[in-house]
């Protein structure tokens, strides 16, 4: 029956179709499932050259990049494509650049991806020991980072590799680890393939019920994703569905449920039409022809199988071509046609021997010996014995080599962990020492700063007292002058004017021979009387002199400003502006605000001009300081000096505003209420 015709043919979707997916990486790379590697096949030289040609310009730009860290996305996208080509030199150079940049930037995900890409590249090159080595390196990084999904996916790829090499026990262990984690990611496409690969081991162990459960789990994921394409993109979805139905059909052939086998292989034929490929059709058609044959509904099974054989030949897939030739040989043998059975057995043998598929070569020899007992067999028997030895030695060497790689990788990880621990201890000690020194330096600097601030505050306090005394002295002086003016005004009014009046009155009463002279003297006395009266009134009203003390302080403050920027300071005061209604507290705070403003201009503004305007508006005195400097940066807008100015303005209930634009200057306005 079916198991007599072939040992077991499992067509995991993993080995079917590859469509290039370009991954984008950020500075700290976000991990993404490698769809390309999941659906990878071995390409011929023409396909590889065509892929390389399609990204030739991007490859040149990546290789000539002057800033590889900035162009990380470009470099990674080119690497993802070059790994499927023969451009080994360009691929390895860009991969090395990405590797070094990832280390410098501590981008662990990108670093692991560089190892993953090397594994994929060497898999395509057939260097399977290197493939395993780089998969292990990537896995160790993902483990260190605690990234469970990348670890699960990496274990799946290792399992697939071990399956290819015939190390089924090791493969099954890796696959079980992968599936345990992937259960938590129900929309991950690797879960579809992992279930199918596990069904293979179930069948080999005779656990057909478990195999069907796993295949149905994979089917459920695809059923839920149909029309949504969240798990797989549309172009891969139908290929995956078709391949899954091929595997379900195969299971039903193994359990001799042929009508179900036909049902699922027919569904697979339907799904492959949505996104037809020769390779995908060759696989599902193979299952479909066998299912129909064992169901008794395929009168031309050989013709149907030849379709798949010719497609494998066209695609140069020698392995599957040799396997299909063996199936055709078994069908002919079952039909009683020994001649054609032997012919196709030899065809399978020659194909397998040509490409050194030793296991297929051994199976073909066994088929030849079974179908032609009269054939002189000593040479073939000897070859069969030698092949068995070769396969045993090869498997033993492979197992030992991979175990050695895993052990050496394990030792390397341990050494790295030990080195990291030592580095961590050194860093910890260095950090403690550095923090201690920094604290000591900070302490003494803070102490000195506090001392400076203390001295500065004392100096400010003294300056304020001096300013208060100056203003108070000016006020006393002003009051004394005013008092003296009033006294003189009164004396003039009460004394001189009265005396003049008396003199004028007596002069008018006198008889004089010279009336003309008398009138002239009277007129002069009247004029003198009026002049004295005007002087008296002016002194009383303080109209002749003004108190310029606070105004003079402001002018003096502005005039003594100087800095390295050669700023030109000018002050303009409105005519007839009076500061008489300002209290001493208000004057002191206004003076200090203007003083701090001018100091800031001298320190930070880089201004060439500074204009100070003092005006009155709506019973308010407005002080405006405007410069054409570089403006106030955002981190200085809340500095100590500006906060002090705001506090002083609040203390005298004045409006304080700052308008500053970078490279366009600053305007500070103080409006006293």
UniProtKB/TrEMBL annotation:
Transmembrane regions: 423-444
SUPFAM superfamilies listed in its UniProt record: ATPase domain of HSP90 chaperone/DNA topoisomerase II/histidine kinase (SSF55874), TPR-like (SSF48452)
Limits of the Histidine kinase/HSP90-like ATPase domain: 589-670
InterPro entries, A to Z: HATPase_C_sf (IPR036890), HATPase_dom (IPR003594), Sensor_HK_TwoCompSys (IPR050482), Sig_transdc_His_kin_sub3_dim/P (IPR011712), TPR-like_helical_dom_sf (IPR011990), TPR_rpt (IPR019734)
Single GO MF annotation: phosphorelay sensor kinase activity
PROSITE patterns: PROKAR_LIPOPROTEIN
Keyword Hydrolase: no
Top EC class of this enzyme: transferase
Entry GO CC: membrane
EC number: 2.7.13.3
Signal transduction histidine kinase subgroup 3 dimerisation and phosphoacceptor domain: residues covered: 484-535
Classification via CDD domains: HATPase_UhpB-NarQ-NarX-like
Keyword terms, alphabetized: ATP-binding, Kinase, Membrane, Nucleotide-binding, Phosphoprotein, Transferase, Transmembrane, Transmembrane helix, Two-component regulatory system
Catalyses which reaction(s): ATP + protein L-histidine = ADP + protein N-phospho-L-histidine
Any matching Pfam family: HisKA_3
The UniProt record lists the keyword Transmembrane helix: yes
Protein name: histidine kinase
């Amino acid at each position: 029956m079916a198991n007599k015709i072939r040992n077991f043919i499992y067509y995991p979707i993993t080995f079917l179709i590859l469509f290039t997916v370009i991954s984008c990486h950020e500075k700290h790379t976000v991990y993404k499932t490698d769809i390309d590697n999941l659906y990878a096949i071995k390409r011929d030289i023409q396909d590889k050259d065509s892929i390389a040609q399609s990204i030739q310009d991007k490859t040149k730009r990546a290789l000539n990049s002057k800033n590889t860290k900035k162009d990380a996305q470009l470099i990674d996208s080119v690497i993802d494509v070059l790994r499927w080509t023969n451009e080994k030199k360009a691929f390895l150079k860009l991969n090395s650049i990405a590797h070094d940049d990832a280390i410098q930037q501590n981008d662990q995900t990108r670093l692991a991806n560089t190892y993953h890409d090397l594994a994929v590249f060497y898999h395509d090159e057939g260097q399977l020991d290197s493939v395993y080595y780089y998969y292990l390196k990537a896995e160790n990084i993902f483990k260190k980072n605690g990234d469970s999904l990348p670890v699960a996916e990496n274990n799946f790829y290792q399992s697939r590799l071990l399956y290819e090499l015939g190390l089924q026990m090791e493969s099954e262990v890796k696959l079980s680890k992968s599936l345990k984690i992937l259960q938590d990611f129900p929309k991950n496409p690797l879960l579809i393939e992992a279930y199918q690969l596990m069904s293979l081991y179930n069948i080999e162990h005779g656990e057909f019920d478990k195999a069907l459960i796993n295949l149905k789990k994979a089917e459920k994921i695809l059923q839920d994703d149909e029309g949504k394409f969240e798990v797989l993109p549309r172009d891969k979805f139908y290929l995956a569905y078709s391949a899954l139905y091929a595997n379900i059909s195969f299971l039903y052939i193994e359990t001799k449920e042929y009508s179900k086998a036909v049902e699922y292989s027919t569904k697979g034929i339907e799904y492959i039409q949505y996104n037809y490929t020769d390779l995908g059709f060759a696989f599902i058609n193979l299952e479909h022809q066998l299912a129909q044959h064992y169901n008794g509904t395929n009168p031309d099974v050989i013709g149907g199988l030849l379709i798949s054989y010719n497609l494998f030949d066209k695609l140069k897939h020698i392995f599957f071509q040799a396997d299909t030739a063996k199936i055709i040989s078994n069908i002919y043998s079952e039909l009683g046609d020994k001649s054609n059975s032997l012919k196709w057995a030899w065809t399978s043998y020659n194909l397998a021997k040509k490409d050194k598929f030793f296991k297929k070569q051994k199976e073909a020899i066994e088929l030849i010996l079974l179908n032609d007992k009269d054939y002189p067999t000593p040479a073939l028997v000897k070859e069969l014995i030698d092949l068995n030895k070769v396969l045993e030695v090869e498997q033993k060497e492979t197992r030992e080599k991979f175990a050695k790689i895993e052990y050496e990788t394990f030792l390397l990880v341990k050494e790295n962990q030990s080195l990291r621990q030592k580095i961590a201890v050194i860093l910890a000690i260095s950090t403690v020492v550095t923090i201690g020194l920094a604290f000591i330096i900070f302490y003494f600097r803070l102490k000195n700063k506090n001392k400076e601030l203390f001295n500065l505050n004392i100096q400010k306090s003294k300056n304020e007292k001096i300013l208060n005394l100056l203003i108070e002295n000016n006020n006393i002086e002003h009051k004394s002058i005013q008092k003296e003016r009033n006294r003189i005004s009164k004396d003039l009014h009460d004394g001189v004017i009265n005396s003049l009046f008396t003199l004028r009155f007596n002069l008018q009463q006198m008889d004089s021979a010279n009336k003309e002279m008398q009138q002239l003297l009277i007129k002069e006395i009247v004029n003198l009387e009026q002049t004295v009266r005007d002087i008296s009134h002016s002194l009383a009203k303080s109209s002749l002199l003004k108190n310029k003390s606070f105004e003079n302080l402001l002018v003096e403050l502005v005039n003594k400003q100087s800095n390295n920027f050669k700023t030109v300071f000018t002050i303009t005061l409105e005519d007839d502006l009076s500061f008489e209604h300002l209290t001493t507290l208000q004057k002191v705070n206004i003076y200090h605000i203007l003083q701090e403003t001018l100091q800031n201009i001298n320190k930070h503004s880089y201004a060439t001009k500074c204009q100070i305007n003092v005006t009155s508006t709506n019973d308010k005195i407005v002080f405006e300081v405007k410069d054409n400097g570089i403006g106030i940066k955002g981190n200085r807008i809340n500095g100590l000096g500006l906060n002090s100015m705001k506090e002083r303005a609040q203390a005298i209930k004045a409006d304080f505003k700052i308008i500053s634009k970078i490279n366009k200057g600053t305007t500070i306005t103080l409006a006293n209420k």
